[in-house]
Amino acid sequence: MSDIADASLAYEGVKRIEWADRSMPVLRQIRERFAAERPLDGLKVAACMHITTETAGLIRTLQAGGASVALAASNPLSTQDDTAAALVQEYGAEVFARAGTDREGYYAHIHKALETGPDFVLDDGCDLVNTLHTDRTDLLGTVKAGCEQTTTGVIRLHQMAFEGALRFPMVAVNDTDTKHMFDNRYGTGQSTLDGIVRATNTLLAGKTIVIAGFGYCGRGLAERARGLGARVVVTEIDPVKALDAALQGFAVQPMAQAAADGDVFITVTGNRDVVNGEHLAVMKDGAILANSGHFDVEIDVRALAEMAVEVHRGVRPQADEYVLADGRRLVLLAEGRLVNLAAAEGHPAAVMDMSFADQALTCAWLATAHATLSPAVHDVPKEIDTEVARLKLASMSIDIDHLSKEQEDYLRSWRIGS
Fold this sequence. Notes:
It is found in: Cytoplasm. The chain is α/β, with parallel strands linked by helices. The protein contains 17 helices and 15 strands.
């Protein structure tokens, strides 16, 4: 039995889902293929994902392939109650999600999704898989395999595998080239700045924006912030990534140095306490704190609360002002959670078209391949990544060159000299 906020919102949800679907041509093509081929016939899927209109496109695609789907939210602040209602009332999915639910409700919903006895699991941050391996080991027996679509989740899965704790194969959908390029770089880059602007209405031109982490997400953010006229400072722990940032013309500094100069701070690392109490203590009056990493641990919100003598909640939607003893005000967005989903609408549908196409095709592949895979973290087969890119190019009416037979022979031969 689903647990949603308001079933009467279904009509509004359907309209928004259909709007998003217009920008998801790759997933539409896969849905049509799945409807004809039924690669997931009779299988149960439990998913812990953001309950958004774009996610609805993936759920409908899995259903077209023959799967039954139970869905819990991977972030209470990103849940769209109208989308949840539409998925239940119009599309026949089980959904356990309410916008703004507390931690207890969040995990209760994950448990409900797992209690459907899934064959496959889809995760966004590894909370569902973690719950399976800790609190609900009684349900592990039916799970054949799963997919993870975030950097944070993949990091956790690799640690589980390293410790010998992972009980079934998981595929790192996050690590495909199409996902890195479209979702992390272009999606996070645009949607994070969108969330910051909606929450603060600040002018980014002329501001110093400090970006913690220069992975794909950090690169996308840095490129777009520079394009809007900001001065960009990057903080990193990886010498290669730091060098990459410097050679692209961005300032590179330790956070301890950047903290005193920044106007806007954005974390995208997948780690905790990237902005900590020492950094908060030297920040400018009015500094804006935003997180676009998966969990609300990258900014030390507890330290911020302990330092504050007053907290003004909701000075703007998804913006809380913390007043420190010396009168400085620091503005925390979206409670330190994902600012692009809590303060905006997440990635554009055209971006999630690629990520969810990877996810759908990987699920179809796992339906037969799971028996050959060990309990470890596996890559998405290269041919799936290539197929998604090919379908996307075709939807954009873009053609590319193809190798001639002679060129193929040349690449396969080591005997041909210069």
